[in-house]
Amino acid sequence: MPTPAALVTELCEDAGISDASGSDDRVKAMKCLNRAASEITSHFRTIKGSGTLTAGSTSYTLASSVTRAVGLDALLVAGRSTPLPRSSYIRVRALQNAGNTGDPTVYAFEDGTVYTDSAGSSALTALCYLSWSDVNESSAESAISGIPVDWHRRLLLPLATAILLEGWEGEEERAAVKRRVAAEAWAQFGFEQARKGGLDLAQYAIADFSTPTPLSGR
User: Fold this and answer.
1) pLDDT (tens digit, 9 = 90+) per residue, 63-103?
2) d(Cα 135, Cα 54) in Å, to the nearest integer?
3) I want to staple 45 with a disulfide (CB 3.0 to 4.6 A). Which of 21, 89, 129, 158 is the partner?
4) Which residues contact 171 (CB under 8 A, 6 or more apart)?
């Protein structure tokens, strides 16, 4: 598994810029690597975490229970084997207003807050996806979370290189080539995530991972 520093060296060499320690080029390359990793992990929700929400409330701020949580994959009630169904904010607040009692039977998630139809007495477990945490030159190999090692050179590097080259005038052709390579790997990575299954993929269709016009966003 390559370290972030090793990946940045490869990125600099591939882009044809200085890989000297502390150089402006290398610093920019590291920023592009982090940006690419953030785009991948936020889109596919691959960095996971969980936390306990103390019983007795009908609203919880997710970030206070799970560090770097940006979204919710599922909500579990202690003692139950199936996750709570998710519903709309309006419906859940209406059920709260109706005075629902006992353990929650449904939840809503809006703007970082979890709402349940009742407070209940059983603890809740929030299964979340997390934001990317930037790496630097001294970061360990394991710091590249959410992207399997076999995708570092297949997806992360070409995407980071495309982002880097797109920032320079006159590099449009090279950037387009790297963007096409990254787009193909992006679609393949999406199919792999879909094959794994899981609650967090239920809202996706396979077509969501295809890239029919990879250059349309440039």
Assistant:
1) 999 999 999 999 999 999 999 999 999 999 999 999 999 99
2) 32
3) 129
4) 165
Say which amino acid occupies 151.
W
Q: How many CB atoms lie within 10 A of CB 205?
A: 9
Domain map (residue ranges) of the chain: 4-46+133-209, 48-130
Specify the pLDDT at position 14: 94
* pTM to 2 decimal places: 0.85
Residue 189, token pair as written in the block: 């990575």
Max CA pair span of the chain: 65
| Contact yes or no for 83/126 (Cβ under 8 A) | no
With tokens 């953030």, the residue in question is 38
Cα Rg for the chain, rounded, in angstroms?
Answer: 21
What size, in residues, is the chain?
Answer: 218
CA 84, 88, 92, 93 torsion-angle sign: positive
